[in-house]
Amino acid sequence: MHSLHLNVNGTEHRLELDERTTLLDALREHLGLTGTKKGCDHGQCGACTVLVEGRRINACLSLAVMHDGDAVTTIEGLAEGERLHPLQAAFVARDGLQCGYCTPGQICSALGMLRELRAGMPSHVTQDLLAAPELADQEIRERMSGNLCRCSCYPNIVAAIRDAAQDVR
């Protein structure tokens, strides 16, 4: 067992966990934050995507003890009270979900992706590596390629991300 401290969605938590506990299981099973989903449990579907220190990660591939002292943001931490985060509102407005299972991971990944884009990080499809990447549909698709949607809502997801991009902090 290992004692650790996590700041999840702005709330401090002290946990006593088996050292083999993934961050995903710590969030779902120990903190009751079930918005983050367990899909493939192999880091291939993106349903478990959360933000750690502002960067997106697959929580199923990361041990909780690796994040002792880190700030973790899950889908539950994005809205401000009853006011949806701009990405959440855009997914609703653009019908970027069907069954909704992948949606929390899609939204957290989109937020991380937009931050990467703003920081000037290129992707595989970035044309000019010396210029700031543009928010083109091809760029969004490439950067979101680690998040799978079994319902095939991809065109609506891309549109939602494009719509919300200017409002995301």
Automatic annotation (TrEMBL):
Keywords per UniProt: Iron, Metal-binding, Oxidoreductase
InterPro entries: 2Fe-2S-bd, 2Fe-2S-bd_dom_sf, 2Fe-2S_ferredoxin-like_sf, 2Fe-2S_ferredoxin-type, 2Fe2S_fd_BS, Aldehyde_Oxdr_Iron-Sulfur, Beta-grasp_dom_sf
Protein's UniProt keywords contain Metal-binding: yes
The name this protein goes by in its record: 2Fe-2S iron-sulfur cluster binding domain-containing protein
Species this protein is from: Ramlibacter alkalitolerans
Top-level taxon: Bacteria
Alphabetical list of PANTHER family matching this protein: OXIDOREDUCTASE WITH IRON-SULFUR SUBUNIT, OXIDOREDUCTASE, IRON-SULPHUR BINDING SUBUNIT-RELATED-RELATED
Pfam families per the UniProt record, alphabetical: Fer2, Fer2_2
PROSITE patterns associated with the record: 2FE2S_FER_1, 2FE2S_FER_2
Residue span, 2Fe-2S ferredoxin-type domain: 2-78
